[in-house]
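Box 3.1 A note on notation
Throughout this textbook, protein chains are presented in two layers. The first layer is the amino acid sequence; the second is a token string describing backbone geometry. Keep the layers aligned when reading.
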Amino acid sequence: MAHVHFGLEHRVVVVTGGAQGIGEACARRVVQDGAAVAVWDL
């Protein structure tokens, strides 16, 4: 799969359900794209 750059520098992303699985993968990906990430999970 090709890497798509979304230009997330200087942005904050909130990921719900980010402790494991798909949420964790999404959080890790947006960090790679330059975002600051807040992970929320219950």
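The beta strands are 12-16, 36-40. Residues 1-42 form one domain.
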